[in-house]
Design a protein that fits this description.
By secondary structure, the chain is an alpha+beta fold. Helices cover 26% and strands 37% of the residues. The protein has helices at 53-68, 78-86; strands at residues 5-10, 15-20, 23-33, 36-44, 72-75. The model has no long low-confidence stretch (mean pLDDT 95).
């Protein structure tokens, strides 16, 4: 990832945040329910759509969830569901429905 980007979990807001040069450009909202984290909405600032930022925030969030261990992902957001379809190697993180 480009050095201009920073990524963080913002648990008080229940979202992962992607910033570029300090400005918030994309978020991925979530809800935690026990050992499942539902990724509910990917949003990119309209001025930055088409730059692949939703893919970056989703990938970083999935990486962080995997690194924590113990949680499965429920891809509620259509974008996140499509991301998992495009990354079958990450299917082991998806919660059974």
């Amino acid at each position: 990832m480009d050095d201009r980007f920073s990524f963080q979990d913002a648990p008080a807001a229940s979202r992962f945040e992607l910033r570029r040069d300090g400005a918030l450009v994309s978020v991925l909202d979530y809800r935690v329910n026990g050992d499942t984290i539902a990724l509910t909405r990917a949003f990119t600032n309209p001025a930055h759509r088409g730059e692949g930022l939703a893919a970056i925030v989703t990938e970083r969030a999935v990486d962080e969830i995997a690194a924590r261990g113990g949680q499965k992902v429920l891809p509620v957001c259509w974008y996140v569901a499509d991301w998992f379809q495009a990354h079958p190697e990450r299917a082991g993180l998806v919660a059974a429905r």
